[in-house]
């Protein structure tokens, strides 16, 4: 079977589908993955065909995180513009040939229409538990429960916000594909009546399956970014790991994009770097700082893991492993190393704790490694994952990203959380327990079963 996977957004929105695609190819299928051009090396490294989507996730992320005149309305307008770019790209990718479309949460509201026009079956594969439930509020609206009725109502309202965001893109895409116009209300009724299977790439060890979900909505376990069998950490990083006790990893993934190269004049990257370094030293631990989209470490710190365009300005995103080397910051000293892209699957098991933005993928990767976490959530679903880490006992309370980037007391705040994560055994014990449960899951295998009609 010829399968097309479509995914759009940051690294964490795309990379899990590389491992899933590789698993589907192992099962005998031919797999293409459509994503932004910056992910082409990541996709091809997994042995998959790459098809380009036109929307730039880094530009969208910078706009969303940096704010804009006009506030929330302007942010929605810019997000809708991203969606309108995305629709034709999905249609063009599907037109290159596919027997089945596998759709991420970002691409599904558009991909379903391409599937309808081309008479291709599709399967939704979101990375968040985004169907309404009374068990918890929508994953993108915060962590305060509104009660069972309130949570479900908020979940439905959240889907209506998504409908509004995608409305122009859907209308234009349907016209392009020769499909009749359809109202948002009709689409909602179709969605509510749809009983098809939806597989969520979420571990039930971290989020129990909601008790009120209909049959067919399943949490099957994570899909992991592809890591080549011969993948290795850069020599400079290996030397650093061998030179002392396990370090604490610090990385914020695609967050802080406005602080990256091309926007360094606001000083955010420098303040973040200084506060993180001070916190690591006050906690008495060694550290590995990943530059990420925020550009942590600055341009003159000696980091050489950002060559070949793989750093903050346009590579494959954090975790990809495409940066060939790592280097220590010139002002950091021997106890802190700044790195570019390295596979989290190889690094995290060798750390004492992971300080991260609580994105779905990084949260899962740290738990898979059995490592305690210090979440620093920024936006969207990150507060939800931070709360889940605390609920299972594998993470400290969250450290606000804004406080870390701007607050004078930020180093003490982060140092206190790091000290707790490293020194209190309960955090590692909880993370280790979750890791054992994750090891027994086979999220990609469950997708293969459904694709082949066995699920």
Give the SSE map.
Layout: E1 2-6, H1 11-14, H2 16-26, E2 30-36, H3 40-45, E3 49-53, H4 57-66, H5 71-95, E4 100-103, H6 108-118, E5 122-124, H7 147-176, H8 184-193, E6 198-200, E7 217-219, H9 235-242, E8 248-251, H10 268-282, E9 287-290, E10 326-327, E11 336-339, H11 344-347, E12 353-356, H12 360-368, E13 373-375, H13 382-391, H14 401-406, H15 410-423, H16 425-439, H17 443-451
Parallel strand pairs: 1-2, 1-4, 2-3, 4-5, 6-7, 8-9, 8-12, 9-11, 12-13
Antiparallel strand pairs: 10-11
Helix pairs in contact: 2-17, 4-5, 5-6, 5-7, 6-7, 10-15
Care to describe what's here?
With 455 residues, the chain is α/β, with parallel strands linked by helices. The chain has 2 domains: 234 residues, Glycogen Phosphorylase B (Rossmann fold); 205 residues, 3-Layer(aba) Sandwich (Rossmann fold), CATH 3.40.50.2000. It contains 17 helices and 13 strands. A 6-stranded mixed β-sheet has the order 10-11-9-8-12-13, with helices on both faces. Strand 8, helix 10 and strand 9 form a beta-alpha-beta unit. Helix 5 packs across helix 7 and helix 6 packs across helix 7.
